[in-house]
Amino acid sequence: MSTFVSSFVPSLVLALAAFAVPVMSASEAPFSLPKLTYELNALEPVVDAQTLAMHHGQLHKTYIDALNNAIMNDPKMEGLTLSALFRSASKLPPVVRDNAGGHYNHSFFWTIMAPKGTGGEPSPALAARIVTDFGSLEQMEEKFEKAGVARVGSGWVWVVWTGSKLAITSTRNQDNPLMDDMEIQGAPILANDVWEHAYSGTFQNRRGEYLKSWWSVVNWKEANSRFAEAALTK
Ligand SMILES: [Fe+2]
User: What is the pTM of this model?
Assistant: First the structure.
């Protein structure tokens, strides 16, 4: 184990004790672009095919290429998982932090969307937790949309499992709630990209309309799995 890794393993263990972190498969460097499980036009009209092609095939790939380049040039980071990188995010060079975040966030994002009518609904366990923590699904959605609109500039809005409850948070640029210096940390259950590149093709600058429309392409089946893995498994 490198000295870089051993320096943050104790904090990693403590953090993992609070909530189980779903870790992407094949997360060892070099990182690669995950395939979409739906066609480029499958999320229309919420996400148009041209936007999805650009967002996935070009922007996401740019983060991966930059991350691989940065890591391969630094032997201390060789072989680290994304999860391990985020647990020491506050100590990382900005180029690694930003591009690791860009890769994780977008990889998560593709899985948490599905063509209209195929995403299912919150499981009984997740639905019950939503009622406990937000009052209703509608109130959770409203709070999520408000947090997304309130994010100044570019970033993400999340539903996370903190270890004891569901919470909504937003992060700047490519930060995410797995990073060690986030005010609200937790395992991601839902995420929406509120960078303008995610929605300007259909909605121009109307981020609020995008956030409201986005619920029709949410993959609740994936959210249910994430919640079960983070909150229900020991
Ligand atoms: Fe994006």
Answer: 0.88
